[in-house]
Amino acid sequence: MRKALALVVTLLALGWGSLGQQTLRLLIVDQTGTMEESLRILAFVRAVRATGLVTVKALAGFPTEPWTEEPFVFAIVIPPQTELIWFCTPAPVNYLPDPLPEAYNALAGGLVQAFEGRRQVRGSHEDVYVLFLSGYLQRLNYLVGVDAQ
Hints:
By secondary structure, this protein is of the alpha/beta class. Helices cover 38% and strands 18% of the residues. The N and C termini lie far apart (37 Å).
């Protein structure tokens, strides 16, 4: 798993870091109920933090109150007892400004690798539930709005 996550770190550095962007803010909502899955999430977080390009905030429960700090660019929700991971973005991936689609793809690939294919990543461009969930997180100020001109 470490070699696979090393590839994610490289892709993230090429897509985000090469453009001199500031750090990418990532929220992870870990609703998993097993130690194994929590350790997989920890390995993923350590790999992306190692780039120095991503700051991560993790929550154990789904947010219901407005966020008063700086919002996140991406939010990853890992629900319990399902094969899905919901990857929330401010807009569908094909409408995000560069280099966010590349960062999305690198992070989504890293999640699949961290879970060794046992879970699939669904984004707002693939699943209407994730689109609505992204809107909800934007309304609570957890997810930043992006001008996708």
